[in-house]
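Example record used in the benchmark description.
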Amino acid sequence: MLRRVKIRDVAEIVALINQYAMKGEMLPRSRSQLYANLRDYVIAEVDGRIIGVGALSIIWDNLAEVRSLAIDPDYAGQGWGRQIVNHLLEEARDLELPQVFAMTYKPGFFTKMGFRIIDKKELPHKVWKDCLHCTKFPDCDEIAMVREV
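Model output (structure tokens):
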């Protein structure tokens, strides 16, 4: 089941995201970052356990980002990531945002979701605000992908 995030979920979400961040597969998130952007997030839950998370961050009037997409390894490959991304794309559609992008190390997944690879230079400078805190900045090796909504 997908649902909106509640305050009580934050510690569990931070742990899920940061297990991937420790491997260098995504940016870490702090509790304060989650609290500040709580309404951007949706979670997948099974039997009261949070097994997936993702967020839609609005960048500008024509662009949003799918970010912090993480699935518990025990539930990987079962379609939860697809459900979360589809939900976030539907939110973007409801907001009448024409494009959504993602920065990823899993281009195959996003290609199956209708995204296409683009040069990072095609994205506006606004998208790089989180990158300044990344240990890989300015030598980012993530792949930029975009999808029309």
